[in-house]
Specification:
The chain has about 230 residues and is an alpha+beta fold. It contains six helices and five strands, in the order H-H-H-E-E-E-H-H-E-E-H. Strand 1 and strand 2 form a beta hairpin. It is globular and about 65 Å long.
Length: about 230
């Protein structure tokens, strides 16, 4: 792995990089500036809210939660859900939460929810192969623990829009209401991904390059902001 020198000249809007921050910078720099330079609020969607609901139930191992009823016994588990890792890679502080992690074997589980688009699944082997989050998290494990499991898994839990029944109390009576909402269908697919050593080294360089790009842009933005104030 190629390690760079002094990070003292690198200036980031937050004291660390995360996968979501890196992905946003590489995908939409203007959106990144709004969120991280201007602290614009993050606007959630029904899909992100539902994903957070599922993620919270998985973290709590609450298999009796109604949202997990159809996937109980189908989702692979490790020993430490929502495992936080803080490491320094090529001089760049990086933070992430692993959906599930095994401290002994160093195995990583990544969970995703997602709805089909015109019958096409949001995840397949090719998309999993290209998903940089898996490489980043494996690198973080290597840097923090000195070893890693190169075989990572991404589990997709299919989501759909459906009529959701809800019981509410009104006037001392229980009334059933129905509304359109998201739910898991019960269909689960597990995609294995073998990550090679060279992929980790390349990711380490991507982290440093991304940090330098953000730093240069952030410093320029600060100068412009001061000149206008």
């Amino acid at each position: 792995m190629c390690y760079y020198g002094d990070m003292s000249e690198i200036l980031l809007p937050k004291p660390y990089l995360s996968y979501s921050a890196m992905e946003l910078w590489l995908r939409d720099k203007q959106a990144y500036r709004g969120r991280y330079y201007l602290n614009e609020p993050y606007f959630s969607t029904p899909y992100t809210e539902f994903g957070n609901l599922v993620g919270g139930a998985l973290e709590d191992r609450d298999w009796d939660h109604p949202v997990l009823a159809l996937v109980k016994g189908k989702v692979p588990q490790q020993t430490h859900p929502e495992h936080r890792i803080d490491v320094e890679i090529n001089g760049v502080p990086v933070m992430g939460f692993l959906d599930d992690f095994n401290l002994e074997t160093k195995a990583i589980e990544e969970y995703k929810t997602g709805i089909r688009n015109k019958g096409k699944a949001p995840w397949d082997r090719v998309k999993v192969r290209k998903h940089k989050q898996l490489t980043l998290y494996t690198l973080m494990v290597r840097e923090m623990y000195g070893s890693y499991d190169p075989d990572i898994q991404l589990t997709w839990m299919e989501t759909e829009w459906a009529d959701i029944d809800k019981e509410v109390e009104f006037g001392g009576q229980i009334i059933k209401e129905s509304y359109k909402g998201l739910r898991l269908t019960g269909h689960v697919e597990v995609f294995p991904r073998h990550i090679k050593e060279w992929e980790l080294d390349r990711m380490a360089d991507i982290i440093r390059d991304t940090a330098e790009e953000i730093s240069e842009d952030y410093k320029l933005w600060q100068k412009k902001s001061k000149s206008l104030s």
